[in-house]
TrEMBL record:
Keywords: Membrane, Transmembrane, Transmembrane helix. It comes from Solanum verrucosum. It comes from the Eukaryota. The chain crosses the membrane at residues 20-38. This is Storage protein.
């Protein structure tokens, strides 16, 4: 019996040792797995994911989730992009994609330096613009005229003869703006170089011929009277001794300004319309900024002499018979030098000036027809019966007058 007891105890000890050994081996294996997992887990997971994704259901689910995430991301990016796009309908045409604070819709004729701080370029900004359409033969007359304008005026010369360096003898010419195009009229220049957004800084714009005598004219005093009487379109009175055509524009010696006159019987269908009122000639007109914005749009690209324009500018001012007038206290002399007329071309035995004159008369008739047709079309578009309308405001024959 003693032998049997001793044998049973030995068996239990052996089993215990095997258990301890197994546990120890398990612990060591676990530590090994734990250490290895940190470096191989990503690879194992990828392998596992690859294996799982081979199953059709899992693959379809992954594609749906991936596609949905991509779509959501694209929508978010597109929405963010749309929000960052700039579109401002109130900006000038063509500039809708710019932020309003960047839009520079107006310009000027102020001369700038090539150096220094831009904010220090202009010690002063002239508030009026005076333009002359000139040829070198009249340079001394223009010199006298320019000297009647102070530093508060920007001087702009349009050279129809192409000669500009000949004006360098005058000190003021170095500060003037010179634009040259052969054999063009002041209205051709005005349509192309006096856009309202270019001349916007100027309170008044003078668009003058070259053959004006200015002995009795002072530009600063003229502006004072224009402002005092609220004139939007004006001209100096004309010395009655020479170069006058219309009673309205002849200087009167008993006042500062007049806005109405008496014409020959039958000349005026309405005492408040040209040539009895609301009328200045095209030789020396002066426009306010607002009036010029309208008149510029009225000027036709191809009708370069401007004949008939003086009978239509009243459409740009209301009430025209009060805001269009002649300044008597500051007057000029129209010398009637046909310098631009002589720039024409002799043809079919006709003198050069004759062809120019015939073109002027033709343009007047064409312009009058365009005005009448445009107004008629407008009223018809509004459903207004025009059968009883009289569109011609006067029956004047342009061939009876010389307008410049």
């Amino acid at each position: 019996m003693k032998n049997f007891g001793r044998s049973s105890s030995s068996l239990k000890s052996a089993e215990t040792m095997r258990l301890i050994f197994s546990v120890a081996c398990g612990v060591m294996f676990g530590l090994f797995i734990g250490i290895s997992f940190s470096t191989s887990s990503l690879t194992k997971l990828n392998i596992t994911a690859s294996i799982v994704s081979n199953f059709p259901i899992a693959r379809d689910r992954n594609n749906i989730v991936s596609s949905q995430n991509h779509t959501d991301s694209s929508i978010k990016i597109q929405n963010a992009t749309d929000q960052l796009k700039i579109w401002v309908p109130s900006n000038p045409k063509g500039a809708e994609r710019l932020p309003p604070g960047l839009v520079a819709s107006e310009s000027d004729y102020y001369l700038r330096r090539l150096w220094g701080n831009p904010s220090e370029d202009l010690p002063s900004k002239p508030k009026c613009l005076v333009t002359f359409t000139v040829g070198v033969k009249q340079k001394h007359n223009i010199d006298a005229a320019v000297k009647k304008f102070s530093d508060d005026f920007t001087i702009l010369l349009f050279h129809y003869d192409g000669k500009t360096t000949e004006w360098d003898e005058f000190e003021w010419s170095k500060r003037a703006i010179h634009v040259s195009a052969l054999k063009q009229t002041k209205w051709w220049y005005a349509k192309r170089f006096l856009h309202p957004d270019i001349v916007a800084p100027y309170d008044y714009i003078f668009i003058w011929d070259e053959d004006l005598g200015v002995e009795h004219f002072d530009a600063n005093e003229y502006i004072k009277l224009v402002k005092k009487h609220g004139l939007e379109i004006s001209q100096p009175g004309l010395d009655p001794r020479k170069g006058t055509t219309w009673p309205m524009t002849i200087r009167r010696g008993n006042g500062e300004v007049h806005t109405i006159t008496e014409e020959k019987p039958g000349k005026c269908s309405d005492p408040h319309l040209p040539p009895c009122a609301a009328f200045v000639e095209i030789m020396a007109p002066v426009f306010s900024r607002d009036a010029w914005r309208c008149v510029w749009h009225m000027i036709q690209n191809d009708l370069i002499h401007g004949w008939g324009l003086d009978f239509a500018v009243h459409k740009c001012v209301e009430p025209a018979h009060e805001k269009i007038g002649v300044v008597d206290a500051q007057w000029i002399l129209h010398q009637s030098v046909p310098s631009l007329g002589n720039e024409g071309q002799a043809k079919d035995g006709k003198a050069a000036w004759r062809g120019v004159r015939e073109r002027c008369e033709k343009e007047w008739s064409m312009f009058q027809s365009r005005v009448e047709n445009a107004e008629k079309d407008y009223y018809i578009s509004k459903g207004i019966d025009t059968s009883n309308f009289t569109f011609k405001s006067n029956g004047i024959d342009p061939s009876n007058f010389i307008s410049h």
